[in-house]
Amino acid sequence: MSKDAILGAIRRGLKRGPLPADQQAMLAGRIATHPRHLIPARSRLPRAEQIALFIRNVEKEFGTVERVPDHAAIPAAVADYLAAQNLPSRIVMAPHPDLTGIDWSTRPMLEREARRAQDGDAVSLQHAWAGIAETGTLVLPSGAERPTTLNLLPDTEIAVLRASDVVGAYEEAWDRLRAGAQDSLTGGFMPRNIMLVTGPSRSADIEQTLELGAHGPRRLHILLVEDEPAPRMESPAEARAEATTQPGAPAAPGD
Amino acid sequence: MVHITSPAFKANAARALADAGLQKALDRSKGTSHGKRAAAVAALPEFERLREIGRDIKNHTLANLDFYLEAYAAQVERAGGTVHWCSTADEARAAVLKICRDKGARTVTKGKSMISEELGINDHLEAHGIEPVETDLGEYILQIRKEPPSHIIGPAFHLNREDWEKTFREIHTELPKDRVFHERSDIMAEARTKLRSRFLAADVGITGANFLIAETGSSVIVTNEGNGDLTQTLPKTHIVLASIEKVVPTLEDATSLLRLLARSATGQDFSVYTTFSTGIRREGDLDGPEDYHVVLIDNGRSNMIGTDFQEMLRCIRCAACMNHCPVYGVTGGHAYGWVYPGPMGSVLTPTLIGIDKAGNLPNASTFCGKCESVCPVKIPLPKLMRHWREREFERHLSPQSVRSGLGFWAWFAKRPTAYRLATKLGIGALGLLGRGKGAFKSLPLAGGWTAGRDLPAPEPGGTFMARYQAQQRGGRR
């Protein structure tokens, strides 16, 4: 069987047999503790500056951000954005309670359907699970309440993100994910798909010159809900992770 | 498998140098890719330390590759996926074809993947009545033009705008003949429209993988267009093609390497879409594939472990080495004659197709060292190319003229008195001949040198050794 052939060839190259049990346990332990390596200092900022960094990075990558006071302000923000972009007043939106729970009656002309995206949908309204300030990146795990196609098929994606869900570095998002809901299939923490999205789709394949809107959305607009009156407390998962590895200190991968 | 023209590198390179269109395309990118990378690196003060971390993560993984591959495969299966272990390209092609046939597939969409080029998946599927559709913009036009990619991240690097327009007019014949491409975005919009229906109709989607994660059983792809995501999200079946060295232990390890990848490749801080796929559609999910297969391919990698070339398995395919290579910069990628061009190709190609066929490649280097200095995982590319030159010499594969020349030089190099005398006479003669001229346009036995540039005539004062001794006698100034 090719599996045995491949593993056998690797072991011959490494001049050893299968790893002894204690070394296997050590490597399994490294996976279980998943040590952090160096985390760049750029996202280690006071809360307000961290959110400002997130916005700056989204805009640097050709996305747009609008700050809204609460979820009640979203229907007006969506309708106004569509009007300003000269887009039809129709959206397909994620069946997420944060979005379906909004009182949309304030904008009766805005047509809405909560479902996955199909060909021909012009605008999606997605629920963003988290934002990463380090590079202005949205974290979009798949699930019944957050279909992946909403990130891909429409020409315009509008994403609703709570300011309290903006973290500094990718590693903070991973720890939040690990502390979150169990996957129904694996019992682990990974959903089927996680998209990290940084700005709208683009390509430089024609003459190495950047053009927006290759296959995914041409526009990415983020509605940032200001739900964070006071600086956020660190979550227990983050506090634990930082206790084992100081920010900025590289952990040796072999440890 | 892709047709190999590596043995004809010298003829390929001469043709490339005379190709005005190619030279125009290569000139356009000169400096811009360097500048973008340099700016992204300058904006991240920790970049150098991240390179060391990236190197160490990959070294740790390779030293325990058997363990991490088994851990990864177990997690894939837990998430409802299937892993197909394939030692050879033949096995991998057969595995892909079998999955497609089992699903009754007629068309297959594809995300950009270099391992797919290495395996020649497209030809194999086509030969068996299944239509593969490349969806990366650059790969799409190359599939139409029946050309291989010339760059590992910008496959259509060698084309100019007029080539795109001409090909699109030839192939998209149902569109108005007199349509005008005002901007590059018009070309892209046409491809977007044409490909959208292909995405929706495909039965199977095939992508590569930038990383595999042992902790979670995830495959990671990195794209800017979103084509890879459409490829792996819309069809009922997703096939991941990945070589064995793509595995890393944890999300944290992948994250550190991702911080290096886009900055080294395109000078972006992060690519637009970095996507982690883990198994099949979950209960309640409204989209995503119902079947998830990983074709895990060795195809020569395991033979590199424990050899001088193990370090090459750290490569994360960013293309920084070719973007900074003075040889790639004038020949382009096709001259290298197989899938992987530039310095990384000059090391990898001989391991995969044999030094007897690829011997020209490790010699196609000035050893300027730029590739090693920009490599995000610190692969000593010039050292590895030198190892190949040594092996080529040991196996008597280098041309007779090179062997005689080296033997001639070695005779003198081992006899310092003779060497000094010979160089003194040579320099003296050249100095006399070149007096007043400053440089030679041609010289006997040096046609290879003077064909491309003049040889400067030696200045009066003798050889380096003579001047050095004179200086020593005169005391330090």
TrEMBL record, chain A:
Q: Give the region (Disordered) as residue ranges.
A: 227-255
- Where are the compositionally biased (Basic and acidic residues) regions? 229-241
- Specify the protein name: Lactate utilization protein C
> What InterPro entries does this protein's entry cite?
LUD_dom (IPR003741)
The record ties this protein, via Pfam families, to: LUD_dom (PF02589)
Spell out the PANTHER family in the cross-references.
Answer: LACTATE UTILIZATION PROTEIN C
Q: Which organism is it from?
A: Falsiroseomonas tokyonensis
Its domain of life reads Bacteria
User: Which part of the chain is the LUD domain?
Assistant: 104-225
TrEMBL record, chain B:
Sequence ranges assigned to domain 4Fe-4S ferredoxin-type in this UniProt record: 303-335
Task: Note whether Glycoprotein occurs among the keywords.
Answer: no
Entry annotated with the keyword Metal-binding: yes
Q: Which ranges of the sequence are coiled-coil?
A: none
Cite the InterPro entries for this sequence.
4Fe4S_Fe-S-bd, 4Fe4S_Fe_S_CS, LUD_dom, LutB/LldF
Keyword set, alphabetical order: Iron, Iron-sulfur, Metal-binding
> What superkingdom does the record give?
Bacteria
Tell me which NCBIfam families the record gives. Answer: LutB/LldF family L-lactate oxidation iron-sulfur protein (TIGR00273)
Name of the featured protein? LutB/LldF family L-lactate oxidation iron-sulfur protein
